[in-house]
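Lab notes, practical 5.
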Amino acid sequence: MPIADRIIKDFYGRIVNSVERDGFSFGKELQLHVLEVRSNNPFESPMEFEETMQRAVLELLSFLGKRYRAKLLGAGMHPLLRIEETDVWPHRHRQIYEAYGKIFNLKQHGWLNIQSFQLNIPYFNEGEAILMHNALANICAYLPAISASSPIYEGRIGEYVDNRLRFYVESQKEVPSITGRVIPEYASSFKQYKEEVIERYSQDLARAGADKCLLYKEWVNSRGVILRFERKTLEIRVMDEQECIRSDVALSCFIRSLLKAFRNGTIPLLPTELLVNDFNSIVKDGLNAKVLHPEASTARGVCRYLFKMAWMYASPEEKKYLGLVARRIEEGSLSEALRREVVKKAQRMSLPEATLNVYLNLVKSLEENKPFF
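Output from the prediction step:
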């Protein structure tokens, strides 16, 4: 339902970009059928993350149920949405989307039908930021193997395990330097990063006729990991939205634990070309992808290796969530689980009916904060 603006107006009394609540905020995204939910302050612990964001989910569900008889749906793509059934946010800050629309075709899945779990990790100085950025390039090449949740779009089963990333990669092909190869190039300093990444895509945008509102802005960067200087964080963008908050928290614990392993030198950095090759294979084939990683020949094998490293450095509280990641590695990502269930049900009903049946259970997963499997 493309009603994000109506929801905000009914809740707040007028249309604004964001509504602040106790501990969290919710507001507009580019797509009119999507609400962004985020914390007001960094979380002190995984448990605080889970409790705060689940409270946000329940508050929104209560409001949506009473006013619209509507629900919230997780996952990386809406499985039945057709592009003509949604639109771009038409209110304040619409000039940014209009500027994008002059250069890119926004009427495609890579713009209007993608939902991601974006994790921001703070840094305290330049040295730490560069170290984490380069470590995250290595982590994010393999994350989609366990975070993919977009097997179906427009009522049909996609050819890729992670169809969101498939469309995401292609969405800004008119100015490819914005996305790069999604897995970011290694950085050596803030100065080098600004000159070789932000300066480059800004110049390319200018040549394409972009409005000034898009030039020299760090948030325009569409790589899988970006440096957000304005708020001193590293923003991770390669993960599909999951089915429930607990699953999002589990992925964040996995990433945080792995970063500790990289900081301690336990895991070495790999060549960017290798990472890009493995990432592209994983987007298509998920955990079964053939990879070039020195520790394993399949994505599942690499994820087992990374999990072992993460477990070594995880805190006791993080370990409480890592069991879900272990299950995803062995039993498949949410994308693979959804595909299995839909295919099984489609043997006795139509594919659209099977999709609706399975995704209604996904709606329940979000409400009850229980993993889909």
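Observations recorded by the TA: The radius of gyration is 20 Å. The mean pLDDT is 97.
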